[in-house]
Amino acid sequence: MKKIILIMLAGLSLYMFFNDTNKQENVRIPDSAIRFRVLANSNSPRDQKIKEEVRDKMQKELYSLLENSKNTKQARNLINNNMNNFNEILEEEMKDKEYSYTIDYGMHEFPEKTYKGITYEAGEYESLLVTLGKGEGDNWWCVLFPPLCLLEAEETTNTSEVEYKSFIKELIEKYF
Prior knowledge:
This protein is α/β, with parallel strands linked by helices. It is 46% helix and 24% strand. A hairpin with a 2-residue loop joins strand 4 and strand 5 (118-120). The longest helix is centred in the first third of the chain and has 22 residues, at 45-66. Mean pLDDT is 79; it is low at 152-165.
């Protein structure tokens, strides 16, 4: 009897796992949201690393700037009023690189993106766009306001302290 229950539980667990991983939800980000996007020069490992360094530097600045924003209008004003600061950060970050950058705040086209099982629709969105060099490499983007990517960037969870457990393994150990 115990074996039958365990087999049924294992089958149910597998069904739920595969059913959840194959299920995708399409999401349209609200028109009031502001995105942040960094386009890499190319897909070379070096250019992708530069993209990540720029992203990290800009996220840190954007977090401190927008952490107390109450609405989109306030966030929009803060971004517009700090474009010179962003340019200075990018200029410092890109000074030893052999290509230039551009930064623009406005409406920009975004491709479809699937992240953690959620598909975000392609479309034109209000955003702060940093283009490195030719901008022909993979991009990185997130929702800047409301500050979804800024909260994610702020997390300092030490993953070495996370303990993973298997429900099925615990059942097998308990009964066998």
